[in-house]
Amino acid sequence: MRIIIIGCGKVGRTLAQQLSEENHDIVIVDTNSKKLQEFNEEVDAICVAGNGASISVLEEAGIDVADVLIAVTGSDELNLLCCLVARKVSQCRTIARVRNPVYQKDINFIKESMGISMIINPEYTTAKEIAMLLRFPSAIQIDTFAGGSVQIVKFKLLPEFGMSGQPMYKLADRLPKVLICAVERDEMIAIPRGDFVLQDNDLVSIVAAQEDCQRFFRDLGLSTRPVKNALIVGGGTLGYYLAQQLGESKIDVRIVERDRSRCELLCETLPAVSVINGDGSDRKILLQSGFLSAQAIVSLTPIDEENIFLAQFAKDRTKAKLVTKVNRLAFDSIIQKLDIGSVVYPKYITADNILQYVRAMQNEVGGSVQTLCHILDNRAEALEFSVKPDSLVANMTLAQLSRRLKKDLLVCSINHNGNVIIPKGQDSIQPGDTVIIVTTQKGLQDINDILAR
Amino acid sequence: MNYSIIRYIVGMTLILEGALMALSCIVAVIYGEPAFWALAVTVLACVVLGLLLRGKRPVNRVFFTREGFVAVALSWLAISVMGAVPFVLSGAIPDPVQALFEAVSGFTTTGASILSEVEPLPKSILFWRSFTHWIGGMGVLVFLLTLLPMSGGFHMSLMKAESPGPSVSRLVPKVQTTAKILYCIYVGMTVIEVCLLLLGRMPLFDALTLSFGTAGTGGFGVRNDSIASYSVYHQVVITIFMILFGVNFNAYFFILFHRAAAAFKMEEVRAYLGIILAAILIVTFNVWHYGLFGSLSKAFQQAAFQVASIITTTGYSTVDFNLWPEMSRTMLVMIMFIGACSGSTGGGIKVSRIVILFKTIRKEIWTYIHPDGVTKVRVDGKSVDHEVVRATNVFFAAYFAVFSISVLLLSIDNLDAVTNFTAVAATLNNIGPGLSLVGPSTNYSVYSSRSLLVMIFDMLAGRLELFPLLVLLARNTWKNF
């Protein structure tokens, strides 16, 4: 497909890189030609300098043959205008990033009246992701597939689980209906086979149906209940959305925010939340706000370093569930090593959501990827494919299939008419099923690509 | 610096060269020539050496402009050395330096030769000699790009290093697809030329080799008198195709994809055709005035051939223009420097750079008149990035530095100044014949091996537009930090 991306910021770049690797034709538009120049050397894409809302610039970018236009500039209004103009001059689908909470209420109205296919609000989406983690605090990361019925959950392997030091085939009895699909250890990521030996402190990802997952964690002796209270440091837009969503799940929320007038606004709009005006990096303020007894501490200040320090401090002093927001993507591999619990990257979340939409679109025209998520900073992917009757893998049993699979690739789950199966050798893939594949191989486009050639 | 990926690219390039050289082996089999063994051994050597160098696919994928430039420069050196081996082994050119000169001259599409007689050479060796033009014309790494599936900045860095012109443009978002489209146009036009030449009853072998020479804007002929003894029809066909291959290939892309208007609006193409027309008219009247050709039409046809051959940096000849009146000779030397369009297969400074340079001069004059005025250099109605203008000026400076040092080095051989000047002009601009002792009826064997090495450098520097070779020689390139 031909995709026009307007805005060469972090999200724009991540999208362009990913989509270009997936063999789409990318045109990227930005007013800053210097930025484009740098970008041109990194990514296989045409760069057009200019304002994406102008028709002549869009024409130069080839709007007449484009399938999708993604507007991710820094300004909501410009993004919406780009989409509006694009809709008027062509038939392409449009995706806009809109983050101002004022528009959030009317988002469906805007979407429909302007004919925009998807509006993404990064803060809102990130808040949803964090809320999910707080409802299931034992997990470091949760990704859902098949409309939520299948989950990939990441957790840290602790000595008390008694799972380390043994090859995986010996653990099979302890893991009914659960499959270990990826293991991260230091710099390495493994798609484990039967003889793989787990170690303490490995980050293990499992695939299971939602209820099996809960049971698995209960068996390990981990809590599967939501946290009772949460301390949010930083009351920006993301903090606002999060407090709102946690409030709906009856979680006791406290927000520490530096800016007085912002505090007053939060207090007005979120009556159930206790708001504290103070600097989140001030020890006294933190301790006074019940830092030590909080079950979850979420650091959402605008400064990455402050968030990371705060999380380190909390890790040292408390047993709370930690969630840290990081904006900058350049050093994510180092942050992974810090062991500060869950780290959320709003930029990746935004990009992943848009990618999912684009993939679903391609699905309509013949591709078969339904959902995709990154397990470890882009090094491994979990993909959900739909199986068509003419597919090469249709009606094959897993035992037959496993001999022909590519390396580092695992068939994790089969969704057969709504029943989630964690497949064993005699299970087979039927047309109409959806399957989840976890792999470190990049660029799988179709279920047939899982076979080695 | 990422050595492993450079090694990988050079290895792949050698394997590709081996595959392409295998075609010449087939020619040797058809004509039953003993040169087959020389070619076959080289093909084998290319493949083995290539496989050794290539090794495993490198894990380290770091690839920046520096790696791109070094990889391209080293690949060109490697294919030139291997390309020279058949000349030595078959005994066609026993001296290794002369053989290397001939091979570099082939790949860089120069067409300068040290051979006085080409007709006694084996057909397969002649075929290889002309085929190197065709490979070098569009670029061997661009060809590699169409085959290698790599992602990210990799493609762009290679393309930037090998494609001529001040800035590389993508025809479509993917560089790989761009490379494929370019090669399709290239192959298509070559096939059309072969067909047209065959229509005029030219033997297939001549039609192929001459088309390779035209397509790559090279200039190696298969007869001692270059093109002179072919019919007027053939000469006209070759004239037209030389001019066509000197046009920016983006124009053909526009025409193919139904945007012909955009093709004719390209300022560079207009300037290119304008210069050609003006030069042809001046030379025609000059030679006609001195009565070299009986009729005006004959003078026009000959002038057109020579002008097209020189400005596109092909270097075929139908007459000894060394004997032409002074004004025509000077005109031809001037258009040597201008060269063809960027994004074509031709060499020289490139019309787009000349256009930018003249516009910069005009801008400078304007700022003298309006000291506080703000103005921009515009090409095709768009203001040219300051970076491109700067790069063009620097290119010009580097070009004349290389040029004058080369002339100085050649003068050690104690030949006359016109010979030295035009020899460097003809090699640095990838043309072939110069004037005086290196004119169309003479050859480069007058020079010593040392001077030939200087010109080998010039040809490579000219084809790769100086900087890849200069980067290769810079000490900082090889420092780890």
Q: What is this structure's SSE topology?
A:
The complex is a heterodimer of chains A (453) and B (481).
Chain A: E1 2-6, H1 10-21, E2 25-30, H2 33-42, E3 46-49, H3 55-60, E4 68-71, H4 76-89, E5 93-97, H5 101-104, H6 107-114, E6 118-120, H7 122-135, E7 141-145, E8 150-156, H8 168-171, E9 179-185, E10 188-190, E11 203-209, H9 210-220, E12 229-233, H10 237-248, E13 252-257, H11 260-269, E14 274-277, H12 283-288, E15 296-299, H13 304-317, E16 321-325, H14 332-337, E17 342-344, H15 346-364, E18 369-376, E19 380-386, H16 398-402, E20 409-416, E21 419-421, E22 434-439
Parallel strand pairs in A: 1-2, 1-4, 2-3, 4-5, 5-6, 12-13, 12-15, 13-14, 15-16, 16-17
Antiparallel strand pairs in A: 7-8, 8-11, 9-10, 9-11, 18-19, 19-22, 20-21, 20-22
Helix pairs in contact in A: 1-15, 7-10, 7-15
Chain B: H1 3-31, H2 35-54, H3 65-89, H4 96-107, H5 123-138, H6 140-147, H7 154-162, H8 175-199, H9 204-215, H10 232-245, H11 249-256, H12 260-265, H13 267-289, H14 296-311, H15 326-338, H16 351-369, E1 378-379, E2 382-383, H17 386-410, H18 417-428, H19 449-463, H20 467-473
Antiparallel strand pairs in B: 1-2
Helix pairs in contact in B: 1-2, 1-3, 1-5, 2-3, 3-4, 3-7, 3-20, 4-5, 4-19, 5-9, 6-8, 8-9, 8-10, 9-10, 10-14, 13-14, 13-15, 14-15, 17-18, 17-19, 18-19
What this model shows, in words?
The complex is a heterodimer of chains A (about 450) and B (about 475). By secondary structure, chain A is an alpha/beta fold. Chain A has 3 domains: about 1-120, Rossmann fold; about 230-345, NAD(P)-binding Rossmann-like Domain (Rossmann fold, 3-Layer(aba) Sandwich), CATH 3.40.50; about 365-450, 2-Layer Sandwich (Alpha-Beta Plaits), CATH 3.30.70. In chain A, about 35% of the residues lie in helices and about 25% in strands. In chain A, the strands form 4 sheets. Chain A has a 6-stranded parallel sheet with strand order 3-2-1-4-5-6, with helices on both faces. A 6-stranded parallel sheet of chain A has the order 14-13-12-15-16-17, with helices on both faces. Chain A has a 5-stranded antiparallel sheet with strand order 7-8-11-9-10. In chain A, helix 10 links the parallel strand 12 (about 230-235) and strand 13 (about 250-255). In chain A, helix 1 packs parallel to helix 15 and helix 7 crosses helix 15 (about 345-365). In chain A, about 45% of the residues are buried. The model of chain A has no long low-confidence stretch (mean pLDDT about 85). Chain B contains 20 helices and 2 strands. Chain B is globular, with a radius of gyration of 22 Å. The relative contact order of chain B is 0.11. Chain B has a two-stranded antiparallel ribbon. In chain B, a hairpin with a 2-residue loop joins strand 1 (about 380) and strand 2. Chain B is mainly alpha-helical and about 475 residues long. Classes of the chains: A alpha/beta (about 450), B mainly alpha (about 475).
